[in-house]
Amino acid sequence: MTNQEKAQQLEQWDRCAFFHPSTHLADFAHGKAPERIVNSGSGVYITDSNGNKLLDAFAGLYCVNTGYGQQKIIDAICKQAQELAYYHAYVGHGTEASITLSKMIIDRAPDNMSKVYYGMSGSDANETNIKIIWYYNNVLGRPEKKKIISRWRGYHGSGLMTGSLTGLELFHNQFDLPLSQVIHTDAPYYFHRKDCNQSEAAFSAECADNLEQLILKEGADTIAAFIGEPALGTGGLVPPPKGYWQAIQAVLDKYDILLIADEVISGFGRLGAMFGSDLYGMKPDIITSAKGLTSAYAPLSASIVSDKIWQVLEDGTTKLGAFGHGWTYSAHPIGAAAGVASLELVDELNLVDNANVRGQSLLNKLKTAIGSHKNVGDIRGQGLLCAIEFVADKNSRTLFNPIGQHGPKVAAAMLARHVIGRAMPQGDIIGIAPPLIISEAEIDTVVSAITAAVSEVFGD
Ligand code: PLP
């Protein structure tokens, strides 16, 4: 079979047998949406089956933090697969990798964190977190305190509970979500404020005030927890406005509501700090981690629980017996080995600092190149999580109507220049979140591609 025949066969199998996530199913099945077969990766680049070498400025799904082809992680995975590809973690079983990784995570996490529970994805980690919190309140004799508050435009996964926590329409519509235990509050999206003259601090105070009104309306003794990403991720890539987390934290403390910091994107360096919680002064009771934990070389997630939560869980098992929650693949040895090697690389390659330095440079260069363009409404970011939001009118910050048509066009124009950016949902927003190893020369390549793509789509 020639290479061309093989490629045609793969495309046919892909379209007739593969149910792709987050994809327009009809367009894909009927050949109207493009497919891409990805063959290899090295550094910040991937290569597809047509031989295109693409600079992946979104690190897969903001997860390949140490970049592609890192020999240290590959070796750790191979060694683990040879020695012991699998054993479970039930009833006190561990491996050198899973035990070592637990210690490494606790050493890097905020001070009050105590233990790590492992899963395979950010979604299952957040499902675990909600179960932990319900169990916690039951053990404390507060069975009514169960509702979870999340934010519109938050992203916390695609499961039944986590899809409910996610505050994006696409993840609710026709799926009978959100579930009744979940309520949503304001997105901390300063660029979308109604009043042009409102300061960031005043906007944060308004978000906190609206949260307090919601808690009072529902009854504080019915609200268990608040979940939020330190900086909004998939819902727009928005760093919090000044004073936001301090104002929210004060309301949560006042009504004895737990905080889950969803650090699936931000954990282990992406924001230029080991954890976003440290950066923004959040005091979480549970931290969710996945993606950067293994740089996505193997699926692994972590629910990192504080000592306060842990003490109650211990009491619970003293009264009730073993903690009845587990996955076959909890603490999978290959994931754990990838995690140990990846976190070592984050230190060895100084990636937290690199995220800071390169992220600042990316923002500065973008602002210089396209900041004054008539359709560029906002350029924002923290570390290597950056967004460009396009508008119909710059002065009034008027969004396009309908929204969501221009972001994909810019992403396509970037791709034509061999740079991958992500058109974010529910907006005209390009997300840039490259591997944290990105060099200054590669930042320049990304900025040039964006600049050219913006003038192609919108004119000069
Ligand atoms: N939480 C956040 C903040 C995320 O960004 C994501 C995925 O993008 C998730 C949770 C869900 O993770 P997964 O896709 O691994 O289930």
TrEMBL record:
Q: Does the keyword Transferase apply?
A: yes
Transferase: present as a keyword of the record? yes
| Cofactor(s) the protein needs | pyridoxal 5'-phosphate
What's a single GO CC term here? cytosol
Keyword annotations: Aminotransferase, Pyridoxal phosphate, Transferase
UniProt xrefs under Pfam families: Aminotran_3 (PF00202)
Among the GO molecular function terms of this UniProt record, one is: transaminase activity
Q: Which family does it belong to?
A: Belongs to the class-III pyridoxal-phosphate-dependent aminotransferase family.
State the protein's name.
Aminotransferase class III-fold pyridoxal phosphate-dependent enzyme
